[in-house]
Design a protein that fits this description.
It is a single chain. By secondary structure, the protein is of the alpha/beta class. The radius of gyration is 18 Å and the shape is globular. It has a single domain, classed as P-loop containing nucleotide triphosphate hydrolases (Rossmann fold). The protein has helices spanning 3-9, 58-65, 88-96, 113-123, 128-141, 157-169, 187-202, 214-217, and strands at residues 17-28, 32-43, 47-51, 73-78, 81-82, 98-101, 175-179, 206-210, 223-228, 231-237. The strands form 2 sheets. The protein has a 6-stranded mixed beta sheet with strand order 6-7-8-3-9-10, with helices on both faces. The model has no long low-confidence stretch (mean pLDDT 92). Helix 1 (3-9) packs parallel to helix 3 (88-96), helix 4 crosses helix 5 (128-141) and helix 4 (113-123) packs parallel to helix 6 (157-169). Bound molecules: adenosine-5'-diphosphate and magnesium ion. Residues 58-59, 103, 179 line the site of magnesium ion (MG).
């Protein structure tokens, strides 16, 4: 069986370990070490928090997991696949099962909210009716129903942030990576975002959340990894309420 067939036929959740990093480093030029000697793993079905000050390396770590950046050294496996040696269709198949909400959103700012959210589902050939239902359901959960046909460039940053999240989870990916998902939100919209991520996690998705918003991880029972200057400072479990 070729690599491609293997990926097409296997659900990502069939592996117990969703993400494994072994001695991973990432440098930019000779002077900047964004990450060094990072070894950890995330189990399938976990909700995992990545915390640390601005510049600690959180965004770089998420980009390494989804192959947006390549490591300078070390090994990265996602669902058992070395993400840096996968190519072409194999990589595309794996990427389709990973939903990412970027810190800078990366929305198509001249398209509507609904079009932005529908993209991942269209790429994987979901039926138009299923797409319409899913888009309306997500907008409802994030209190954005009245923005369905709004051009995303005209939204506030907090609204754009929620559209980016809706797009990341729309196609029910097995792995969801979210970077500072509540950075521009007030307490009540933060709660909606956390509720949506919790529902996706309960439905089986593995979720990695980079954040410095204490309110979303302090009360959780999930594991929390703190980065400091590109290294792992601690790996603890939240205090379950
Ligand atoms: N493309 C890049 N070029 C140069 N330096 C970068 C680049 N991306 C990140 N860095 C640097 O790597 C370090 C970690 O950045 P980042 O991963 O964005 O941290 P965080 O998300 O925790 O704020 C910072 O010092 C940042 O300036
Ligand atoms: Mg960041």
């Amino acid at each position: 069986m070729s690599n491609k067939e293997t990926i097409e036929k296997k659900e990502l959740s069939s592996k117990n370990t969703m993400i494994e990093m072994i001695k991973v480093g990432r440098t930019y030029g000779p002077d900047i070490t964004a990450l060094s000697d990072i070894s950890f793993s995330v189990e399938t079905g976990e909700m995992f928090f990545l915390i640390g000050r601005s510049g600690a390396g959180k965004t770089t770590l998420l980009k390494l997991i989804c192959n947006m950046e390549i490591p300078s050294n070390g090994l990265i496996e996602v669902a058992g696949y070395n993400i840096n040696t996968l190519k072409g269709n194999d990589l595309a198949h794996l990427r389709q099962r990973i939903g990412v909400a970027y810190q800078d959103f990366k929305l198509l700012n001249d398209r509507t909210v609904a079009e932005n959210i529908a993209i991942a589902m269209e790429v994987s050939y979901k039926k138009p009716r299923a797409i319409r239902h899913r888009v309306r359901d997500l907008l409802d959960q994030l209190q954005l129903s009245d923005k369905h046909n709004t051009i995303t460039g005209e939204l506030s940053r907090g609204e754009q942030q929620r559209v980016a999240l809706a797009r990341a989870v729309a196609n029910s990916p097995r792995l969801i990576l979210v970077d500072e998902p509540t950075g521009n939100l007030d307490a009540s919209t933060t709660e909606q975002v956390v509720a949506l991520l919790t529902r996706s996690n309960k439905a089986g998705a593995t979720i990695v959340i980079a954040t410095h918003d204490k309110s979303i991880y302090q009360q959780s029972k999930h594991r929390i990894m703190e980065l400091c200057d590109g290294s792992i400072a601690s790996l603890t479990r939240g205090e379950q309420p």
